[in-house]
Write a structure and sequence with these properties.
- The structure holds 4 protein chains of 4 kinds.
- Helix content of chain A is 71%, strand content 4%.
- Chain A contains 34 helices and 11 strands.
- Chain A starts with a helix and ends with a strand.
- Chain B has a domain of 226 residues.
- In chain B, α12 packs antiparallel against α15.
- The two termini of chain B are 33 Å apart.
- Chain B is globular and about 80 Å long.
- The chains are: A mainly alpha, B mainly alpha, C mainly alpha, D mainly alpha.
- Chains in contact: A-B, A-C, A-D, C-D.
Chain lengths: 849, 556, 215, 104
């Protein structure tokens, strides 16, 4: 049993890899339809089979046994290579997170492969008599291999390796239509932008290896914990990094490491400053957009953050949250004005990825991953639907030319609508029968993220007041709090908590108790428990009952405020809420413009059709969106939560804390602060509002929107959004032109400066040689008399040579000699006095000289 | 057997001299192939890491295999030996040389179609002599012999570029020659100085009355020396001796030992360093490389990039560091800086080129910068990374040069902006080209990645060393090179292989021939194998020796 | 085609710039005088050294002069050079204004900018196949020239730095054109005459040299 | 900095002079060389007038000298342009490097 599951997971890498080589080597011979089926079966069918076995087995395995399996897999890794004297091992990371994501990737990829066969069937893919059909599936298989490898990687190095490989596949697939004008630059942009992120990732890797001494995830987390407790290594010193006007002085190396690792995620998940490549990546075939640029690869960034969650300090987490927040809001705004159906979905993807990253940043670990899964389902479905539309409309992507496609593509229309409902977070807010609530995937996952964000933004006072209370009791807190203000202090915030823990072990039993209360309430779902207001009482109660010892120790490690976790700035929560209203609007707009209303381009409408091969995956994914994500993945991810809860430094806030063993901070469920009930009123019906507004604007086609677009404040906004905040232009100028400019300068220097120096050196040597050869040697050899005549001759020659007849040379010589004379005057030892004489003659004095 | 391998190409050269004209190519081909096969036979001896279990041959320097040592020029006052052998450092480079030698010989097969297609006999004779020279450099363990081989290699190269090169061949050849010669002169100074200083050390030890018995064994005969080997009666050219003999090492490292008023180790280190840095080539000494590459015919470019550049890195690891570790410490910052500048500057210069071959040449500067950086930081990971980077570059850059050569044969120009869409017209070639260039880019799974990553991580590690607080900055800057590399390589791929075919009348681009494919495929396979199995292909052979060298360097 | 279009466009831009600059050269001196040299007594204009306006004007036009001179250095085509020269000469004339040599400034504008420059342009037009023809100097030539010129500049600067010119003499100079005329016709009468003769010879000589030979 | 003195003008003159020399030396076009000469003459004029302004004895010698320079420069320009045209007539180019018939 023990090696079985991990071996299955490892084995799932083999079929896609072999399929890749089979298709590369014999692709043209296999032929057109068959290559696709080979790709489907080998590339994803077999892995899906294996993955299903693992998933089902895991689903019915008890928690203790799961942990045993995890550590067994951890211990059965094979040696891959040596890095210094450190042994780099390869193996399988076997835990709930891996299993869940692995299954999700396999499942979605399988249906997208299936869809691709239909999609590519009608494709004119012969260029220069070379079919690219097999190439497409070869790339897809390679992608399957890399993505699954990424998911099961146990160490950061392998994460990085597969990370780059999925980047390569993305590059190849975006550039699939490489004979066009638009695809190659888009592919290049994607790769290079990712490389910028990887630059940070490599720095993070370097810091991890240097200070934590290992690249293994488990080992690194353990070392992190130890160093935190001891205040050494990563926490021993602070660095000062001014970025964008924020001075990160006083940041520990640990924070820098976290930010570095997150940079990789920023590249892959296309977060705010590096988001520019994803919309362009839509140049690839639509199944690719669905698979790589919506469901799996771009989510790898979120997966990475989830994996390294235990290595993030609170400051790094806050950085993550800020980036996520910016992305989710501003990208959603752009989506409103997009007219290309794929671009619209791309910006929606960016925004949703921002949601996930934001969720990670605020500590909603489970919720963010859950959103990853639900999003993967419905966004893959939406993209496939758009692929169906594009294919059916003969590669028209402009929504303004569509409309009224419902009659031609009913299945696509309604599955797309399910996707829209899901992404909008449709559900019945505040209503439940027992534990059963009603809604689509996005409803639950977004709700959880927002609930945590709410809790961090508004209910955080419960910890801070608790802290004050404790400080009143024993003063230890005050030291921590006051010294925390001193940014230049060379010991980190986190280390304070550790010191505090050792110095004042009795600091926080009450907090533990409060935690326990809150958790209990979260579990039972009652909304009327004790709140933070009763912390004192509860604390006293806890102390009386003798909950000291282990519980207190544990809780102080989990004390969020002491660990440096600050309350979430309220604007971030506000942004997330605003986006919750924007998302339904633009998604409904996309759906309505495409499928409903009157056909705006009869030509497009006439030829539109739906393909059987492509509707099946849509239906399957729709079912997945409706039920599977919540029923299957939520509990799985909840079980994975301890991975994050084990975080030594950071307290993982989590929505519901389904698993009693998970020592997460649960939400404050007291009646007046329950995030869920608050959210019902704040965003519960946002989807209705969004839909309604979109319907009002677009129900009669584009007229109203056109008019709105041209009214005063909106027209500027529209221009800004249409140009995507001018990021492409900015980067084009700043980086591309800048880089090429610097490169040109370097090239110039190389030929004109460095080479010139060498050439001058050689010509000087040559002249010198000529001189010695002609004058000195000749004199020596030919004796005195000869020498005289030779000298005379040479002199004549020498005198003749300067008379070149070239006017410019004369000027040059004159000025050169003049300069030399002046310089000699200035430099000669008696120059000063001579100059003084001259100057005095002229009636001036000199000074200095 | 080692000597046979070294001199087999030379024998081929002699045969070429007398062979009928139509047999010349065949003889050259067979002799390089035989050399390759013979060198592959050496592999089993190195299986298992090359760590000397018995400690017979200098425990501190890894295991030497296939040692052959004969007195060569011995007089009253000096001893020059024919002393060759392979250890984990030289062996992979030795195999690389035979491989690249064979493949580039095969790449010369279309000699008749070249711009300058006269003098085939001379060409192949010089080519084979060049290969002997290169093999000799890697195998020789006697400094004098090393120097002789070094010069033997230089002259054929000069003629190969200067006679069969492109339009500016004379300029390029002379530039190459002068640069390398300048390095050789410094090396010659070091050679002589080291001989006499080591003699001083030994004589001082012998005169030391306190250990009359110990002096004999300590100063004259180190542990690995066979009993009948000629005695040291003054100085030594023996590289292993100099690195491992405590007496000599102490004398070399001592503050009191000076040369021209500067500390001996420091100045000797920099002499040797400049000699090898020119070959590497690193930043201020690199300008010969683009010219030489651009003008040289394709096979010669392959050799130049694949093997000759490696001699610089090999020299660091064989001579500079083990013999003058204190010099290495003193110059670490400078070396690392030069390495980082090479990385960034080379990449930027590559980005500015429009000549395809020049671009690849500058990319070599950038890649070899990683070697310099990895060596300079003196960590295990750094050394391993540098070694791997040399081998990876030895595979990927000849491949890239050959790729350029293939399209140059068709289009008769190398202007990047005048190509396009080659992946459509030449799909097989395009696929292989993609592998080659992505390997050069440092994509994980291909050979370029391991070296870069190891060097970067090694540099980071060095930052923990209190003497190298600058290493973090270096690592970050070098990591930025990764972006630039991606930039210029992808831009190149975009311009040449993607997009619309850019056809010019009279220059159609037919698919790669079977010969061309056959030359490219081994490179591509090695790119992938080295990327996927770095231990099995490289590290297992060289790590033992590298760790020994590092132990010598850090005094462990 | 496109290239020549660009040239036309550039030509227009240059023309426009020239116009604007000419206006500036006329207007600014008046301003400079108004601020820097308040009329103390009729007929004689006194400069006030050290005024901020003088400093500003100096830096602006001194900078322009230097920049234009460098422009002359780096331009390849002779028309560009002439244009830069125009700016340099104009800027220098403003400097004359600042030096209270108004008469010379005017002469500078009239003779140089109005006369010599036009002459040069004529020369360009009459002698060249194309106004944009370029002869590129060799690399070595450029390197040596820049070496020497930079060296010369450094020498001159160090001389300037090393020389103490003493306090300026207290005489505040205006530009009495009348005084100049008087002095020319008294103290400098002989040179003045010789210059007149020279000019005549020049006229004859130039006409002779430029004459088309009939054969 | 604000107070403009003699030295400021001298610096400008020096720069103009060097620029003129550079132009003379590097331009192969005869007219270009002429332009360089004009720059050099101008720099001399700046010197003359600046000295006159700051160290003149009130006799305006500097200004008058500058005046003569301008006159001579105009004459020189006229002759030089004529020479250029002659040069062009004979060699069908204005590249002065072609005119090396006086080479020793």
């Amino acid at each position: 049993m023990e090696p079985f599951l991990s071996k299955l997971l490892a084995a799932s890498l083999i079929p896609p890899f072999l399929t890749f080589w089979i298709l590369v080597l014999w692709g043209p011979k296999i032929g057109k339809p068959r290559a696709g089926w080979v790709g489907l079966i080998g590339g994803m069918g077999l892995p899906l089979l294996l993955s299903t076995i693992v998933f089902v087995t895991w689903f019915f395995t008890g928690p203790e046994q799961r942990d045993a399996l995890t550590s067994a897999a951890q211990n059965s890794q094979v040696l891959w290579s040596q890095l210094g004297d450190f042994k780099v091992t390869f193996g399988v990371k076997l835990d709930s997170l891996t299993v869940a994501i692995h299954f999700m990737v396999c499942f979605i990829a399988f249906w997208i492969f299936f869809f691709s066969i239909g999609y590519m069937a009608g494709h004119s893919d012969c260029v220069h008599h070379q079919s690219k059909y097999w190439r497409f599936f070869a790339y897809l298989a390679l992608f399957g291999f890399s993505m699954l490898g990424l998911v099961i990687s146990p160490s950061l190095l392998f994460l990085f390796i597969f990370w780059e490989l999925v980047g390569l596949c993305s590059y190849l697939l975006i550039g699939f239509y490489f004979d066009t004008d638009y695809a190659p630059p888009a592919a290049m942009k994607a790769f290079i932008t990712n490389r910028v992120g990887d630059f940070g990732f490599i720095i993070g890797l370097g810091i991890v290896f240097t200070f934590l001494g290992t690249l293994d995830l488990e080992g690194a987390a353990a070392a992190f914990k130890t160093q935190l407790a001891a205040g050494t290594g990563l926490f021993a010193k602070t660095v000062s990094v001014p970025i964008l006007g924020w001075s990160f002085s006083g940041m520990t190396l640990a924070t820098l490491m976290g930010i570095g690792l997150f940079c990789g995620a920023m590249g892959k998940s296309a977060q705010f400053p590096l988001h520019v490549w994803l919309p362009d990546a839509m140049a690839g075939p639509t199944p690719v957009s669905a698979l790589i640029h919506a469901a799996t690869m771009v989510a790898a960034g979120v997966y990475l953050v989830a994996r390294v969650f235990r290595l993030l300090t609170p400051d790094a987490q806050m950085f993550v949250a800020v980036i996520g927040c910016i992305t989710l809001t501003f990208m959603a705004l752009i989506a409103i004005v997009q007219t290309d159906i794929k671009k619209c979905l791309a910006y929606s993807t960016l925004s949703q990825l921002g949601y996930m990253i934001f969720g990670m940043g605020v500590g909603a670990w489970t919720a963010a991953l859950f959103h990853l899964v639900t999003h993967a389902f419905f966004k893959a479905m939406l993209f496939l639907g758009s692929g169906q539309v594009i294919e059916g409309c003969h590669h028209v992507q402009d929504m303004r030319r569509m409309g009224g496609l419902k009659s031609k593509m009913p299945v696509t229309c309604w599955t797309f609508f399910i996707g829209v409902l899901a992404i909008a977070g449709t559900g019945i807010p505040g209503f439940h029968i027992g534990d059963l609530r009603f809604g689509l995937g996005g409803f639950f996952s977004k709700d959880e993220i927002l609930a945590v964000a709410y809790d961090r933004a508004f209910n955080w006072g419960r910890f801070e007041s608790g802290g004050e209370h404790a400080a009143a009791q024993n003063g230890g807190w005050q030291i921590a709090n006051s010294e925390r203000e001193e940014a230049s202090e060379s010991v980190s915030l986190a280390a304070f908590s550790a010191q505090h823990k050792t110095a004042q072990p009795k600091g926080a039993p009450e907090l533990a108790e409060q935690d326990a209360h809150a958790k209990q309430e979260g579990r039972t779902g009652e909304a009327n428990g004790h709140g933070a207001g009763t912390a004192q009482e509860a604390g006293g109660h806890g102390a009386e009952e003798g909950h000291g010892g282990a519980a207190a120790h544990h809780a102080s490690a989990k004390d969020p405020v002491a660990a440096g976790m600050k309350a979430l700035p309220k604007w971030m929560f506000l942004f997330a809420i605003i986006t919750a209203y924007i998302t339904p609007f633009y998604m409904f707009r996309a759906w309505w413009l495409t499928f409903m209303g009157k056909p705006r381009d009869p030509h497009v409408h006439e030829h539109a059709h739906e393909s059987k091969m492509m509707t099946l995956p849509l239906a399957v994914l729709a079912v997945g969106t409706l039920v599977a994500s919540y029923a299957l993945f939520r509990p799985m991810l909840a079980h994975a939560a301890p991975v994050a809860a084990d975080a030594p430094l950071v307290v993982a806030v989590d929505g519901e804390a389904h698993d009693p063993a998970a020592s997460l901070i649960a939400l404050d469920h007291s009646a007046d602060r329950n995030p869920h009930s608050k959210l019902v009123t704040i965003v519960g019906f946002s989807f209705l509002v969004g839909f309604a507004v979109a319907w009002l604007v677009y129900r009669k086609g584009l007229g109203i929107a056109e008019r709105l677009k041209n009214t005063f404040p909106l027209n500027y906004l529209h221009t800004l959004l249409e140009h995507k905040y001018y990021f492409d232009e900015l980067y084009g100028f700043l980086w591309v032109r800048g880089c090429r400019g610097v490169a040109a300068v370097c090239g110039f220097i190389d030929t004109w400066v460095i080479d010139l120096v060498y050439n001058l050196l050689s010509s000087v040597t040559e002249r010198l040689a000529a001189f010695t050869g002609r004058v000195l040697d000749a004199q020596g050899v030919d004796g005195f008399v000869n020498g005289i005549s030779e000298t005379a001759d040479d002199l004549a020659e020498a005198l003749r040579r300067p008379q070149t007849g070239g006017i410019r040379k004369y000027v040059l010589w004159t000025v050169g000699i003049g300069t030399a004379v002046i310089a000699a005057f200035l430099l000669a030892p008696y120059g000063e006095s001579a100059w003084t004489v001259v100057a005095e003659r002229l009636g001036f004095g000199t000074h200095g000289g | 057997m080692l000597s046979w391998t070294i001199f087999l190409p030379a024998i081929g050269a002699v045969l070429c001299m007398f062979a009928p004209k139509n047999q010349i190519k065949r003889i050259a081909f067979i002799s390089t192939l035989a050399t390759l096969l013979l060198s592959l036979l050496l592999i089993p001896a190195f299986m298992g890491g090359g760590i000397d279990p018995a400690g017979t041959f200098g425990t501190r320097y890894g295991l030497m295999h296939f040692v052959e040592r004969l007195p060569w020029i011995t007089g009253e006052s000096f001893t020059i030996e024919y002393f060759v052998g392979l250890d984990g450092l030289s062996f992979p480079l030795f195999i690389l040389t035979t491989l690249v030698g064979f493949l580039s010989c095969w790449a010369s097969w279309n000699f008749e179609n070249w711009r300058v297609n006269k003098g085939m006999r001379t060409y192949f004779i010089l080519f084979l002599l060049l290969e002997t020279g290169m093999l000799g450099v890697f195998a020789s363990l006697d400094f004098f012999l090393f120097y002789v081989f070094w010069e033997v290699m230089l002259l054929p190269m000069y003629f190969l570029i200067g006679v069969w090169g492109g339009p500016r061949k004379e300029y390029a050849a002379i530039k190459f020659f002068l640069f390398t010669l300048a390095g050789s002169v410094l090396m010659l100074i070091a050679l002589v100085a080291m001989y006499f200083y080591s003699g001083d050390a030994v004589r001082a030890a012998m005169a030391d009355a306190s250990s009359p018995a110990g002096a004999q064994s300590q100063g004259l005969v180190s542990g690995y020396r066979p009993a009948d080997a000629p005695l040291l009666n003054g100085g030594t050219f023996d590289l292993i001796e100099m690195a491992t003999n405590d007496v000599i090492a102490k004398h070399f490292a001592s503050d009191g030992t000076t040369f021209l008023g500067v500390k001996f180790a420091v100045i000797m280190f920099i002499f040797l360093f400049i000699g090898f840095a020119i070959k590497l080539p690193s930043f201020p000494f690199h300008t010969w490389l683009p010219d030489a590459h651009v003008e040289a015919p394709t096979p010669i470019s392959m050799i130049l990039a694949g093997v000759l550049l490696k001699m610089g890195g090999y020299g660091f690891l064989r001579l500079c560091y083990p013999i003058f570790p204190s010099g290495g410490e003193a110059w670490a910052f400078v070396l690392a800086t030069v390495g980082v500048i090479s990385i960034l500057y080379g990449a930027l210069c590559a980005m500015a080129q429009t000549d395809f071959k020049k671009l690849v040449a500058y990319s070599s500067v950038s890649h070899m910068g990683y070697v310099l950086l990895g060596v300079a930081v003196m960590t295990q990971a750094g050394f391993q990374g540098a070694m791997f980077q040399m081998l990876a570059h030895g595979i990927s850059s000849p491949m890239c040069f050959f790729l350029v050569g293939v399209i140059y044969d068709r289009a008769h120009h190398r202007d990047l902006n005048r190509f396009g869409g080659l992946w459509l017209t030449m799909p097989r070639y395009g696929t292989l080209a993609t592998i080659g260039f992505f390997a050069s880019l440092g994509l994980p799974g291909l050979c370029g990645f391991i070296g870069e990553a190891w060097v970067l991580i090694g540099t980071f590690q060095a930052g923990a060393n209190p003497q190298m607080p600058w290493a973090y900055t270096m690592a970050v800057l070098a990591a930025a090179g990764v972006i630039l590399t991606a930039g210029y390589i992808l831009w190149t791929i975009k311009r040449v292989y993607l997009g619309h075919p850019h056809e010019e009348p009279g220059h159609e681009m037919p698919e790669a021939t079977a010969r061309e494919t056959a030359i490219l495929v081994p490179f591509a396979v090695l790119c992938i194998l080295m990327g996927v199995f770095p231990s099995q292909t490289v590290f297992n052979y060289c790590n033992g020796t590298l760790n020994h060298i590092l132990a010598v360097v850090t005094g462990g | 085609m496109l290239d020549s279009g660009c040239r036309v466009l550039k030509g227009r831009v240059i023309l426009r710039l020239l116009l604007i600059a000419s206006l500036g050269f006329v207007a600014l001196p008046a301003l400079a005088q108004a601020q820097a040299a308040p009329r103390v007594e009729p007929g004689v204009v006194y400069a006030t050294p050290g005024g901020w306006f003088e400093a500003a004007m100096f830096y602006v036009f001194g900078g322009l002069a230097i920049a234009s001179a460098l422009g002359v250095c780096v331009s390849r085509s002779v028309v560009r050079m002439a244009t830069w020269l125009f700016f340099a000469l104009g800027a220098v004339s403003i400097l004359y204004f600042l030096l209270a040599a108004t008469f010379l400034a005017a002469i500078q504008l009239i003779v140089y900018v109005g006369g010599v420059l036009i002459l040069l342009i004529f020369g360009v037009m009459l002698t060249s196949q194309s106004a944009w023809v370029r002869f590129t100097p060799t690399r070595t030539n450029l390197a040596v020239a820049s070496l020497i010129c930079v060296g010369l500049l450094i020498c001159l600067m160090s001389v300037l730095a090393g020389t103490d010119f003493g306090p300026p003499s207290a005489t505040s100079i205006g530009t009495p054109v009348e005084a100049i005329g008087r002095r020319l016709l008294t103290h400098y009468l002989v040179p003045f005459e010789i210059a007149g003769v020279l000019l005549m010879i020049v006229m004859v000589g130039a006409a002779h040299l430029a004459r088309q030979e009939k054969n | 900095m604000l107070a403009i003195g003699l030295i400021h003008y001298l610096i400008i003159a020096a720069v103009l002079f060097c620029a003129g020399v550079f132009t003379m030396v590097t331009k192969r076009n005869a007219i270009g060389i002429l332009i360089g000469v004009e720059l050099v003459l101008n720099s001399a004029n700046v010197n003359l007038i600046a000295f006159d302004r700051y160290h003149g004895k009130g006799a305006m010698d500097g200004q008058i000298a500058a005046l003569f320079v301008i006159v001579l420069a105009a004459a020189e320009a006229a002759i030089a342009v004529a020479i250029c045209m002659n040069f062009y007539k004979n060699l069908v180019t204005v590249d002065v490097d072609q005119g090396d018939a006086l080479r020793g």
